[in-house]
Amino acid sequence: MRLEEDHSYRETPNRLKYMAEIRDVLGLDRNDLPEYTTIYKSFDRLKMWVWRVLLRGNAQQRPQSGHAALDSTFFDRRSASSYYRQRSGSDVQILKVTTLTDRDSLAVLDVHISARWKHDTKTGPQVVRRNADDLQSVAADKAFHNWVTKYEFYALGIEPLILQRGSRPLTLGHNALIRAKGYSQRWMAETSYSTTKRSHGDAVRALGWYRQFREIVLMFAISNIEPLCEPL
């Protein structure tokens, strides 16, 4: 609610006083609302795996195809934390986010966020591995390609729709086959990025990097929920 309505942490409890339906869902009494610091510190109390469960839980409210797109995008952290970065001696200005997106529903199933950019062949398998039981195929561009990744996907029972680099006839034939099997649906991941960033921006506001990670997960979680809230 805070992100959707663009409220500050201080404003949120005051707004809740006049939102009876939301209070009823949350089980909150009008005279017993949490302090804004309680809401703010919840980002610290909940571990990252809890935020991932939240993201996956609301993604499962939408139809799941078992076919996912793997891709990476970036979020700006400069505007929110210039003072923090100077004080802490950090020079990281951009966060790299690798996501796993259902190709039919556009729901983001899982994310990996890094301040120190790892290669896609390192982060991609990590995200897929956590969700292997629910996947049949994963489409990804050439940045995610190496033989170790492909073998791991096959071992998990997942078909890797990953393009190869090169211009040899064998490589061109392989890429043509991959496109015919559904690789073209990989753009669904970019559509989910566009939707999220249009609604919530492409920059994070929190000061600490760990809160920024949770903020990004929450952005994607809200984007998963929003289509379910649209009037029929």
UniProtKB/TrEMBL annotation:
<feature type="domain" description="Transposase IS4-like">
    <location>
        <begin position="65"/>
        <end position="225"/>
    </location>
</feature>
<dbReference type="InterPro" id="IPR053520">
    <property type="entry name" value="Transposase_Tn903"/>
</dbReference>
<protein>
    <submittedName>
        <fullName>Putative transposase</fullName>
    </submittedName>
</protein>
<dbReference type="InterPro" id="IPR002559">
    <property type="entry name" value="Transposase_11"/>
</dbReference>
<dbReference type="GO" id="GO:0003677">
    <property type="term" value="F:DNA binding"/>
</dbReference>
<dbReference type="GO" id="GO:0006313">
    <property type="term" value="P:DNA transposition"/>
</dbReference>
<dbReference type="Pfam" id="PF01609">
    <property type="entry name" value="DDE_Tnp_1"/>
</dbReference>
<dbReference type="GO" id="GO:0004803">
    <property type="term" value="F:transposase activity"/>
</dbReference>
